Amino acid sequence: HHQGAFGCTRGGNDACELPKDNPDITSPCVHVYDVNAEKCVASCDPSSMFVGEEGYCQPCNDNCAKHGCTGALASDCNVCESVELDNTCVAACPPSYFQDSNKQCQECNEECTHLPLTSTDSQVSRYCSGPGADSCFACVHFRRGDTCVRECNTNEVAINGVCYPCHAQCDSAAGCIGVEATECNECRSFNYLGECVSSCNEDEAFSSSETNECYPCDAQCSLGIGNGGCPSGTEPQDCKLCLHVRDQYGECVTSCHSSHYADTTDIETAIDGVCKPC
Fold first, then answer.
1. Is 54 helix (H, G, I), strand (E, B) or coil?
2. What is the C-alpha radius of gyration for the chain, rounded to an integer number of angstroms?
3. Residue among 64, 105, 106, 104 at smallest CA distance from 81
4. C-alpha of 47 from chain center
């Protein structure tokens, strides 16, 4: 090899060195010039470099794994060091993405969001851990069980961002304002003093099939268990068993009229007897 304008090296890679005081000049190497090693080489390191313009070995992007590249950009890597997002190697997936088993960044479900910034959770900035609305760390709208949803169903009520089912005695088509039987918008069966029930207590209320209401029996009715309440209505004469006596008109009263006495032998419909004329 002859001594040229760039100088020569004996042995080695049979190539002339690039003078260090002329960094912008075209490579005079027989093969390629390694900018990292600052010398001529037979070929670029295929694991970390690529042949750039004018025969220079250029380093791959920092996000490339040691499997080479075709250019200087993160999108030119043959294999990513960490993960890939939209055909580009990145150090980590964005908060609204998760890393799948193929080291690809996949977008979280649209119902996912991040936990409040005041949280001490280590995943505070991330939206999800996997695909689906059941992998969210927090919900954009509401949560039903482990799944984020856009809205609660008609037969559910939202409490602090969580969908809870209405009480079983609520009309499923009418919804509710809470989870108790007293918080139904409409009752599935009967309404007893503001509480939805499956049936009226026959020992203390009258059941109306017209209004689906349970009406309390009159105060003069005996409401003991098995006494029957008021099966035909809510008036004093509708009691199946009077708490005291039953007068000459068939109504339950506290005591008989002065012209009548309580026949204590006739206690089938009144605990203290039926009023009969003196």
1. helix
2. 44
3. 64
4. 45
